[in-house]
Amino acid sequence: MLMILVGIVTLYLVVKLYISAMQIGYISVAKSRPAVLLDSKKFIEAANYAIAKERLAMVGSIVEYLLFLIWISSGIAYLEGAFIELTEPYKSVVIVLGFILINGAVTLPLNIYEKFVLDEKFGFNRSTIKLYIKDTLITTALTVVLGGAVIWGASVIIDSTQLWWLWTFCFLFAVIVALNMFFPTIRALFFDKVKPLEDSELNQRIEALMSETGFVSSGVYVSDASKRDARLNAYFGGLGKSKRVVLFDTLLQKLTPDELLAVLGHELGHFAHGDLYKNIAVVGLMLFSMLAIFGNLPQSIFLHLGLSESASVKMILFMLFMGVASFVIMPLMGLVSRHNEFEADAMGAKLSSKEQLASALMKLVAENSSFPLSHKLYILFYYTHPPVMERLKKLGVDV
User: Fold this and answer.
1) Cβ-defined contacts of 165-171 (< 8 Å, 24+)
2) Strand partners, 229
């Protein structure tokens, strides 16, 4: 049984590395051809950044695989033995949090390298070591507090009923919905400082745009994201009355008001089509399927692995194989997501204009150093948005 599980994850690693290698090879060839959407210098720079990021991702995949081997062979059993005298649900909280924090500590050097070497080299990083340490400590504290509470709840459910997988799904799905509701508030409290948009004319134009689609928000805010990163972004956060529009200050600095409205029109297209709720439903379906499988595993699997059927073991095994399950269904999820993006683009063009949306998309590519071309296999597995060239062609823009 152990060999079968290792074989599944080994195949997962090989496929991921193969896709990354194909992407690197594709970009290496493409960057020697005439530039598209970017000037020649930016085109080559974006290609080099994409290749460097993919190579780092390959290293991350290998580290993830080695961690899996350690955990599945002896790591889980060691953690269980180290805290054998604790009673449930305290035991589950300590063991599962230990698993999460150890994984985080092992991958931390890769995150630091990406931030302070790779992103620094290509001009994206604006964070300081002090700010990074502060963010890491806050993230860890939130993981311990909020993650500990979720683990506690799941452990109590698992130990209380034979249909634990069904009730655990209900509990975790409720947590996912709550996190979507309160994400903007949590981010504003602990990470980015947000303040109401001061440009009254732009605010009025945004409010008018939102009213066209019936989008009711708690306000339009600006985030000081530039203190960490130079890339452009914006998001609509929250559910129900907690919805808010948050613009990165970098977006305001680089886009014209008309281009900004076109981007927001695109996001409003997602709202009008109910894409956020569809995405939550898809996540819920995947979570339900995974828990249904794990809730009906034969006892022999645990015996072969030399592990107990405790709540902590079930949660750790679930997290170890969640990545594999997600990877398998990513092509289908990506296909649906890319379709939704095309529809949102059509809404953005309708609410503003296709010329302004196209101009904004091209600026986003340039400012974020996004290489505009990718291997088809990479697009199939990893692209939640269509390639920008396809989006521009769909808008009727000559590229």
Assistant:
1) 165/291, 165/292, 165/294, 165/295, 165/296, 166/291, 166/292, 166/295, 168/291, 168/295, 169/284, 169/287, 169/288, 169/291, 169/292
2) 125
What tokens does 175 get? 């947590």
Find out whether 92 and 312 touch, Cβ atoms under 8 Å. yes
What is the DSSP secondary-structure string of 252-284? HHHS-HHHHHHHHHHHHHHHHTTHHHHHHHHHH
In the chain, where the domains are located: 2-194+267-394
Which 8-state DSSP code applies to residue 225? G
| Cis? peptide before 257, omega within 30° of 0 | no
Tens-place pLDDT, residues 155-182: 999 999 889 999 999 999 999 888 877 7
Q: What is the CB neighbour count within 10 angstroms for residue 178?
A: 11
Residues of 71-89 as b/e, b for ≥16 C-beta within 10 angstroms?
bbeebbbebbeeeeeeeeb
Q: What is the pLDDT of residues 293-325, one digit of tens each?
A: 888 888 888 888 888 889 999 999 999 998 898
Tokens 């193969």 found at: 18
Are the C-beta atoms of 251 and 234 separated by less than 8 Å? yes
What are the DSSP E strand ranges found in the chain? 194-196, 220-223, 234-237, 244-248
At residue 248, φ and ψ (nearest 5 deg) are -70, 140
Tell me which residue of 60, 59, 31 sits closest to 47, measured CA to CA: 31
Q: What is the DSSP letter of 384?
A: S
Q: The whole model's pTM is what?
A: 0.86
Taking the CA atoms of 195, 196, 198 and 203 in sequence, report the sign of the dihedral they define.
positive
Are 98 and 80 in contact by the 8 Å Cβ rule? The answer is no
First to last CA, the chain: 53
Residue 85 CB contacts under 8 Å (≥ 6 apart), including other chains: none
If you search the block for the tokens 């975790």, which residue do you land on?
172
pLDDT of residue 239: 62
